[in-house]
Amino acid sequence: MVCFTQNSVVSRQHKTWRADLIARVADDLGLERVMFEAADPAVFTWYVKNYGPDVNLFVDHSQIVQLECLRSGIWGTKDVRGRVKTFKE
Predict the structure, then answer these.
(1) Which pTM was predicted?
(2) 3-state SS string over 24-71?
(3) For 25-75, how does the pLDDT look when each residue is reduced to its tens digit (9 = 90+)?
(4) Sign of CA dihedral 1, 69, 6, 20
């Protein structure tokens, strides 16, 4: 089973992001069973910073390269550039 959460539920329609709701979904279902919609770079950067580079994200096709560069640590704002670590062979 995979659960998909829309970006508007957790960030777009609220003044503050519902990090508590995201954490509850991730804890209850497990990150491997959840895919989060990340409609813009600020949102997918937040997910990578908080849940790591392997978090399942649904992004627009025009943002795939940007997301993958962020996940590999070669792109991002000052607070994440070069700080994302993966230990894959």
Answers:
(1) 0.77
(2) HHHHHHCHHHEEEECCCHHHHHHHHHHHCCCCCEECCHHHHHHHHHHH
(3) 899 999 988 888 888 888 888 898 889 889 999 999 999 998 998 888 777
(4) positive
